[in-house]
Amino acid sequence: MTEVLGRRVPGSPVIVALDVADASAALSLAARLDPQLCRVKVGKELFTRAGPAVVEQLQRAGFEVFLDLKFHDIPTTVAQALRAAADLGVWMVNVHAAGGRRMLDAAVEALTACRRPPLLIGVTVLTSMDASDLAELGYTETVAERVLRLATLTASAGLDGVVCSAQEAPALRRACGEAFALVTPGIRTAGDDAADQRRVVTPAEAVALGADYLVIGRSVTASADPVMALNAILAEISGDAAR
Ligand SMILES: O=c1ccn([C@@H]2O[C@H](COP(=O)(O)O)[C@@H](O)[C@H]2O)c(=O)[nH]1
To answer: Can you list the GO cellular component terms from the UniProt entry (predicted)?
Structure first.
């Protein structure tokens, strides 16, 4: 267990997004990181380039892997994809909550039968989206309302948690309870470029708002010294920064 500002989470709350072009870049970055201090995330770019092999290599190196493929398809297809992910032995997987109740039910059922099921997380509203994006898609809800709707659907279907911005964490904690995992991308250290992200918070803010896991990509991976950047973030969230 790691203590983060008084809240205890199992293992490190930091998940480094290995958004790099190939297996060799991912493995050489991972070799500089300590699996005791972070988990890693394999997303669409790396998985499409390097496939299951890179997941297995990262796990052999001691990392728990979040396979971030955000499945969103008909229930049967999602269920089968999740069984394949579970066979890889990953720690966390995700689906889009917008796939709806029957897709979420199929996802939960698919993993229930697995010997070591990964944590199953529903994506609410991407952290790259804001009110204008939702309006253009025809949604009349605010971002906060839509995130809450998708999170309560996810919780009622029996998933383990959601991907959201830490900005929504207090409301989701109240609505979905202490055990519901809040996985938060859109993390930027002070002064970093938000780039395509729209709902952004700092690592310390995310933890103070009640996030369980902080997904951090470019603030670590685009840094001149990723190890130093990660250590600074860990110090910031443990309350050691600038003391
Ligand atoms: O709503 C979401 C869901 C997933 N992501 C993923 O997290 C990382 C964030 O990377 P940064 O470089 O820290 O912006 C990236 O892999 C996304 O695919 C997200 O950002 N928002």
So the answer is: cytosol
Per-residue pLDDT reduced to its tens digit, 48-77? 999 999 999 999 999 999 999 999 999 999
ipTM for the complex shown: 0.99
Ligand 1 nearest-atom number relative to CA 128: 21
Write out the residue range of the structural domain in which residue 175 sits: 14-237
CATH label of the domain that carries residue 160: 3.20.20.70
Q: Which of 19, 29, 147, 192 has most ligand 1 atoms within 8 Å of CB, for mutation?
A: 19
Helices (H), the chain: 23-32, 44-60, 75-87, 101-112, 131-136, 143-156, 169-176, 203-209, 218-221, 226-237
Tell me: is residue 96 an annotated ligand-binding position: no
Active-site positions read 68, 70, 73
